[in-house]
Amino acid sequence: MKRQAFYFFSGAFMLLATVACSEHDDMTGDNSSTTATKTRIEVTADMGAGTRTLRPDAQNHIISEWAEGDKMVIYNIADENKSTEDNYSLVNIQNISSNKKQADFAGDVVSFKPVTTGNTLAFFYPGAAFEGEKSVVPVNPNTTHETDQGADLTYHDTASKIKNLVALNMKQQDGTLETIDKKFDYNWGKVTITSNNQFTNYTGERKNKTTILKTKVTLQRKVTFWGMKFTVNGGPSATGVLTDIDSIKVNGLRSYDVLDLQDGTFKGTSDEKEYVINIANKDRSKLNIKSDGYVWVAFMAEENASNPTNFTVTVYTQDGVFTKTASKKFENDYDYRTNITVEKVKPQPWVEVNGVKWATGNFIHYKKGSEEYWGIAPAQWWISNYGDEASPMYQIDRRQLKSNGLGSQSWYVDSNLGVFKHSTDDIDLFQWGTIKDALDLKGDNCLLGIGSHDIAGKYYSSRGNVFVNPTPIANRSQATHGDIAKYWTEDGTKHYHYRYPKEAELEKLCSANTIIAAYCYTDKGNKIYGAYFSNSVSTGANSKFPTGRKIWKYQDVTGLVLANKGLFLPITGRRPGGIKANRVNVDLRYVNYNSGFYSQYNSSQAMSDLTQKGLFFGAAFKMNVATPSKLQGSALRPVYVGADNNDETKPLDAAKVHAFQNILTEAGRKY
């Protein structure tokens, strides 16, 4: 690893570098004026050993050189957040020496208050991070405490004017040092102005007077760089190195925080910090990997560097998806290079959380052409119409069905009501205890009973009545009600078998080590929002339910779900159980700002003739087990029972369905 410190001196901004070692490892006040003032600043930057634009040298150490277009931000702390400026002040490179170790900068410091002796100026590089597709934006110094609909979240809202706090967003990168240099190589420093830092310049026979500042500052790099080279035993290339990569996700690295320009400390709350980086090109082309095979990422190392960082990396290629989970110690202001041996993702029939083995998808019915499937969905994020365009065929009462993107989580009517018509060819919500009439969406088909009883793994020959609990039968062929997951995964065509979850098993989810408001990307490129549960303790605090009606706080867990590290339950809404004509409708699925959305998942436990126990979570629902109506259409995530001959090496049953081949095949998982 290599560490660099940056120094800027009066008259000459001088940048020195001290090199430790390189690490190569293998893993398997008030002012009456309201007019902004400008103060001229001219700086000559003399680099010495260190430089600015990032590139590897012959030994793969990361060095840098000043380049045309380099710029820095300057902010006057004395403004006390009263500035009405939309943009921070910039100083731009004017000239670069032949050896690229020296550069002249010039620019104006625009300040709410005139810059004077005793003021402190904060410096931030790179200035380009504040331009174009911004990776740095100002945020309000005072936190927002969101309590709407039962939420309990504290965070810094985006500010329209410049402030002393800025949000650093490193969640989307492309794996190149060039982009890191322009957008993510965050450096900070400050200087207090003294009389020695100012001089007066006269022009036009001394009639015009201009104050020009010269200063001295030390910059601190606030990030670290990590070069990752991926190898796989028996991989697609002769060397085993993966270079033909579509995209990469890294979970566990701090990618979003708030920096205080006054003192260079991080001020992000536990609710707003994020720990995932997506490495991909915007046009979805393959990553641009140099001949050395390294993919580069920048991130903020944890401030307690003595503790290792747990991470999961997921590599997407045309030859399959590869993953690795490990831990490593990182420090800011260092660069690292690591050879990471990854393994190809093997689809699993279950994922375990708190001792319960859950199916890796909701129970669904899907029909396309002559092909019909009842069983476990091909992916944990699958919901009905997950990647479809809004269409008149799903409209209700001639109310125009609108959309802000692909998929049924993006469909709405009026201003923000997520209501659409459910198609029996693509269905993921079921009345409680139905089997024979599961596709009769308008009928009264739920299993009845007078009080508490459990239907997990059981069949019944009729709906029963409200005066007595139903009596189970053994003969599957006579079943009209009961456990639909067991019924269809024991139809003689399935290798893997499942059942309804019990109330206690849903309760165990509520006490998982990690519960995150999260989303997964689909094969169509859109997001599906939901909740992620895991035995592993996530880096940083967990997101909370209820989440309120802002969806920025949901975090990307696509890689973790692919790697089978946890359970993902998508937000599905429900079908209402009241007026029969409305039972065909799905509501409360639209996930967007200020919309009401939630999920309810069936358990096997009945409470009365028309109520059962189910898991709830969403914008206004805390994660808890409550009592929905049996007549409502609810989602169902089955529990794993076992495989034929206890053989879990066979492909998943959904892999045999032609309609799912872009997600899951017998050769492996793609999404």
Structure characterization notes:
This is BACON domain-containing protein. The chain is mainly β. Among the domains are: about 35-130 and about 180-220, Immunoglobulin-like, CATH 2.60.40; about 350-500 and about 570-665, no CATH class. Helices cover about 5% and strands about 35% of the residues. The chain is built from four helices and 51 strands. Strands 2, 3, 5, 8, 9, 10, 11, 17, 18, 19 and 20 form an eleven-stranded mixed sheet that branches. Strands 12, 15, 16, 22, 23, 25, 26 and 28 form an eight-stranded mixed sheet that branches. Strands 1, 4, 21, 24 and 27 form a five-stranded mixed sheet that branches. The protein starts with a strand and ends with a strand. Residues about 1-20, about 30-35 and about 45-50 have low confidence and may be disordered.
Q: Helical amount among residues, as a percent range? A: under 10%
Beta-strand share of residues = 35-45%
Low-confidence stretches: 2-22, 29-33, 46-52
Cα-based radius of gyration, to the nearest Å? 29 Å
Q: Quick check: average pLDDT?
A: 88
Shape: elongated
Whole-Å distance between the termini? 34 Å
